[in-house]
C-alpha cells in the first residue's frame, strides 16, 4: 500500500496537537475550579490573620490584667458619700495571647530602662500613679440637736495613713474647723506611732443656731505631730453642712485629699536605687525633678538634693547634689554610694530632701521622701523592688511631702 510521505509526516503532528489541546483545556478547567474553590483561601487567610493577631496587639492581655477593683473601707456604716466599689469584669483566659504577654513585658521593661536613662523623657504612667498617692481615709459622724442648738462632731478613726516620720510611722491628730471661721478650732489627742488610729472623741459646737450651721463647711485636717518642728499635714476633708441631713447622726467615710495649703503640690522626684549585696552597698541616683514648688519671690527656685543615710534613727552619712539655678524641672543625674551591710537593711532609712538654696536667708525645704521597708506605700514598693532586683537600678517617681 502506498502512503504519501507528506501525509505520513502530518499524521503524528495532528495527534500531538490534539494531545496538547486536551492538556491545555484540562489545565484551564483546573485553574478555573481552583479559583472558585475557597478552601485554600480560607486556610491561608486564617493563618495570616493569626500571625497578625500574634504580633499586632502585644499590649491587649497586659491591659486586661491591670484592671483593679476598688474596695469599700472596713468598719463603720457606709452612706451615700462613701466610694462606690468598682467591679472587675472577669474574662476567660486566652491561651493564644500568652506569648504576647511575655513579648510585651520584655518590650515594656526595655522601654522603662530607656526612660530611666533619658533625662529628657517623661514617664506618664509613673506620673499618674504618683499623683494618685493614697493618703488614707477618715471616719466621722455629724448631727444636730435642735433643742439645745448644738452641733455634734465625732471623730472615730482613720485608716492607711502615710508614714511621715523617718521611723516609718506617724503621730496623727485631727483639727476641726467650721469654715469660714479659722480662729476657733478643736483638736483630737495625738495617737503615737499609729497609721490606723482610733480616737472616738466627741466635740460639741454649742449655742449654734441651725440657720447658721447650714452656712458652714465642716473641715477636718489630719496632721502628723512633731515635737521639734512644724507639724506635717497629712490630708484634709471638707463637707458642706447644707448637704447633710443633720436631724440624726450621720456617719461618713471620706478619702483624705492633699491639703489646700500647698503641701500636696510640692513636685515630684525621679530617683533610682541599686542594691549590691556582695559589696554591701546601695547606689542612690538622683535623676531629675519636675513641677517643683516655687519658693522664691520671682516664681522659681534654686533646687538641690540632700541624701541622708539613717540607721536606727541616727544620722550616719550625708551627701548632696549641685544647685540648679532658677529651675523648677531640674535634671541632676548624680549618683551616691552608701555602705550598708545586709543585716542592717531593716533598720536603715534613706531620707531624700529637695532644698531651695538661698544666699540671704536659711535654705527652704521644698519636700522630702523617706525610703525604707516601713515607709509609705510608694516608698515601700520602691525599697522592695530594689531588694528583689539586686545589682539593677530600679527607678521610680515619688511625690514630695512636707
Molecular structure report:
- By secondary structure, this protein is α+β, with helices and mostly antiparallel strands.
- It is built from seven helices and 16 strands.
- The chain has helices at residues 5-36, 39-56, 60-65, 98-117, 124-131, 210-213, 377-388; strands at 137-145, 150-159, 172-179, 181-187, 198-205, 217-224, 232-240, 250-255, 268-276, 281-290, 303-311, 314-320, 331-339, 348-356, 364-371, 394-399.
- The strands form four sheets. A four-stranded antiparallel beta sheet has the order 5-2-1-8, with no helix packed on it.
How is the largest sheet built, in terms of strand order?
5-2-1-8
Element string (H = helix, E = strand): HHHHHEEEEEHEEEEEEEEEEHE
Average of per-residue pLDDT values: 74
Radius of gyration: 35 Å
Coarse morphology: extended
Please give the number of β-strands: 16
List the total number of helices: 7
N-to-C span: 124 Å
What structural class is derived from the secondary structure elements? alpha+beta
Most strands sheet: 4 strands, antiparallel
Which spans have pLDDT < 50 for at least 5 consecutive residues? 5-10, 41-131
SS strand fraction: 25-35%
List the helices and strands and how they pair.
Layout: H1 5-36, H2 39-56, H3 60-65, H4 98-117, H5 124-131, E1 137-145, E2 150-159, E3 172-179, E4 181-187, E5 198-205, H6 210-213, E6 217-224, E7 232-240, E8 250-255, E9 268-276, E10 281-290, E11 303-311, E12 314-320, E13 331-339, E14 348-356, E15 364-371, H7 377-388, E16 394-399
Brief summary of the model shown:
This protein is of the alpha+beta class and 402 residues long.
